[in-house]
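Re: the multi-chain job from yesterday

Posting the exact lines I submitted so nobody has to dig through the queue logs.
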Amino acid sequence: MSGESVKLLGYWASPFALRVKWALKLKEIEYQYVEEDLPNKSPLLLRYNPVHKRVPVLVHDGKPVAESLIILEYIDETWKHNPILPQDPYERAQARFWAGFIDEKCVPAIMSAFTNQGEEKEKAAKEARENLKTLESALGGKDFFGGETVGFVDIAAGWIGLWARNVEEIAEVNLIDAETMPLLNAWFGRVLEAPVLKECVPPRDKLLEHNRGFHKILTAASS
Amino acid sequence: MADEVVLLDFWPSPFGIRLRIALAEKGIVHEYKEEDVWNKSPLLLQMNPVHKKIPVLIHNGKPVSESLIALQYIDEVWNHKAPLLPSDSYLRAQARFWADFVDKKIFEIGRQLWATKGEEQNAAIKEFLNCIGVLERELGDKPFFGGDTLGFVDVTLISHYRWFLVYEKFGNFSVEAEHPEFIAWVKRCMEKESVSKSLPEQEKVYDYAMLLRKKFGIE
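And the result, structure tokens for all chains:
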């Protein structure tokens, strides 16, 4: 569809914006990327997402869609080639379930391991490992959660391979345990190396330094 | 082959109520199984091993958990009657957004509201009423969020209503006083049989809330 205007308001270090970039790339959708200078949110962002005031926001022909997983579904329903979600309603429900699990369980646990210290940190890391192990059960023996190709859950979870590794290094915790979750560990490698996805990933060194900076602030505040 | 549909539910749960409404709207024959969330059945633990929570929709033996996911599943499988989500992809995205807002914001604030006192409670009441206002503006002139008929957001939001009255009681405030349009919407929803039959009695919900407060030592 030519002549359409697709704009993505994002932030280079946001895993949620990365999800949307991946979906747009997989669907070969041309778009204009607008880098938000967080925490100095632009008037544009505040206008397009007055409720949550955060990235990512997809703006299609002037109409905004917010919340990354909702954006992914919107993209999949609007541009029907290279489907991200399965066709079968039951499999779609499963894909939505695991994407939701990542946001409700894996993300908070990893964040908690990142922002806390001592016993709290270890407790959070343990919970994160358990959640990741549970996530692995959805993978089974498949190359990707989507089967032979990248799908909804791969796009939703892939970023953990980068961020969790940074948290491991900075906070000195173990999150992705190669021994106890070998299939998930292998999948992280595979998804981040997948052709289209690899190109959108933020520069690793820059991301590590960015995360490290945050960690200093967060841990200084709590000590 | 006849469809076998089972709903594992707990009578005061807003998350279960919304599935009851959807099943009624679509005329789906099903078996309702009451779970005691304080004493979970082996079936529940088997059907939802990850979260161990109700509601769970079991369709021909296969479980779907998480209420908004189950709502979409119901809408996609039984698409012959009473569609909950619109067909336009932008409007669908908006419906999903607002349903997510209801469950994330309103439900969480509600929990703070009836479990706290003093300054904390006042702040929660203010935030709660603010969110109702946001929803009211989103509704605008339409009879329902779904347009002329109940939609995804209506079903999601009205399922919390008995608990809104619990918040009002414990917080000593009135939603109607601040947001009469919202209450007008509530009344329109309650005129639907699928809604009025799916909501538990208000008194029973109050009693259950009192029980929870005692259980968690909130007085």
